[in-house]
Amino acid sequence: MVSITIMQNKVTNKKIIVTGASSGIGERMCWHIAKHGGTPIMLARSIEKLQNQQKLINQTFDISSYVYQVDLLNADELEKVIRQVLSEHTQIHGLINNAGAGVFDYVRDIQWLDVERMFQLNVFALMRGTKLLLPHFSQNQEGHFVNIASQAGKIATPKSSIYASTKHAVLGFTNALRLEISSKNIHVTAVNLGPVRTNFFTTADPSGNYQKSVERYMLDPDKVADNIVKHLFTKKREINLPWWMEMGSKFYQLFPRALEKSLRKQFNQK
């Protein structure tokens, strides 16, 4: 009960922007933010899904929430919406950069349009949103950036070259940002996840083969979301799930050739 009370005190009455809020981890994070007295500000392309979620949150928790339709592939649209949010709310306390997508394919086969879309959504939108919120957080001397990266940002595997590259970029950006604003009361957290049971694989792996091969290892999106929300407004540097995959990434840093050789079959499951 003590840990829950502490978390509630940190999240209660805080306004937190969540991108990719209409499904998966984003949807569940908004739910847990509201559950603990916070105000989710939900951004996604599907305004209908957002409005349905807004209604459910209000009915369940008697908590206000806000929805904004935005296509994160459109940089101008993202900037317009962020500026609208800042003009309509006295203070924003957190930004969870959750929106992302992947397409698993060999470098020789990947479509360039997919490359551009992954970088725009996974990297450029995240960086742009962060840059737009940073002056606001600095002025208020309070804030928390949570960037959803991936274990793929630590261990790249065949057919994930582009997706892994975007997550490498997210980790590099997140770590540098943390150092740049270390003197301010602004927290920066990277979230590195293995496979999560969401609709991510509908686009990433239309064949379903990879999802079938890792089904038993998949993370529950609700548990992931709960874990992330529990660490809001704390000094948590990284959230790494599952733990054994994080151990694998540490081993990989020390013995990359040995791990690539011993796990060749697993690395080629996509």
From TrEMBL:
Gene Ontology cellular component terms for the protein in this record: membrane
Cited InterPro entries: NAD(P)-bd_dom_sf, Sc_DH/Rdtase_CS, SDR_fam
The UniProt record lists the keyword Acetylation: no
Signal peptide bounds: none
Keywords for the protein's UniProt record, in alphabetical order: Oxidoreductase
Keyword Oxidoreductase carried by entry: yes
Molecular-function GO terms, alphabetical: oxidoreductase activity
Gene3D superfamilies associated with the record: NAD(P)-binding Rossmann-like Domain
Domain of life: Bacteria
Sequence similarity: Belongs to the short-chain dehydrogenases/reductases (SDR) family.
Name this polypeptide is given: Short-chain dehydrogenase
Protein's organism: Virgibacillus salinus
